[in-house]
Design a protein that fits this description.
single chain; about 180 residues; alpha+beta; 6 strands
Length: about 180
């Protein structure tokens, strides 16, 4: 075989191996592009998750600031209940007694101050009497036979309910009308 024939054979062998090499490079390129797309997707998911975590933390921070007094407010509700019971228990004769007037006035002022503090912190009473029972704000304790009221209407309030901002602090304990 002469030199030209050897070169031709080498070229043909090179072309065949070049084709195989080109196919391998194309397959490798496709594989790398697929991996790159998967990595892009993972990066996008990680960024989205980071953003979601940031939003959740910001919302939790806002909620913590808004509702930080919830536990304390619940404790103060019993104080308010006791003040209201004390005022309700004072008979009219005692209210007129000169020695008791200052005591009654002190209890009334304390109750008003507590109401003002509740209002400043977004604590409000739950309306109950005459309203339909709402399980989100009322807890039915008894059913009361009543011809006048529509069944399911609150006709008695045993304990006041309260909300803080838009959350229930304590449900109102109520009696609900039923047909006799």
């Amino acid at each position: 075989m002469n030199e030209d024939e050897a070169k031709t054979e080498d070229l043909e062998a090179g072309e065949e191996s070049g084709l195989e090499s080109g196919e391998l490079n194309f397959d490798r390129l496709a594989e790398l592009e697929k991996e790159l797309e998967e990595v892009r997707q993972h990066v996008l998911y990680a960024q989205a998750e980071t953003q979601n975590v940031r939003r959740r933390l910001e919302q939790e921070k806002v909620n913590a600031a808004q509702y930080a007094a919830t536990s304390f407010a619940r404790d103060m509700l019993s104080v308010k209940d006791n003040l209201e019971r004390a005022l309700a228990a004072i008979a009219d004769e005692l209210r007129e007694d000169e020695r008791m007037k200052s005591v009654v006035a002190g209890i009334e002022v304390t109750a008003r101050d507590l109401d003002a503090a509740f209002e400043r912190h977004g604590i409000k009473g739950v309306e109950a009497l005459g309203r339909p029972l709402d399980p989100h704000f009322h807890q039915a304790m008894i059913e009361v036979p009543d011809d006048q009221a529509e069944p399911g209407t609150i006709v008695q309030e045993m304990q006041s309910g309260y909300t803080i901002k838009d959350r229930l602090l304590r449900p109102a304990l109520v009696g609900v009308a039923r047909k006799p």
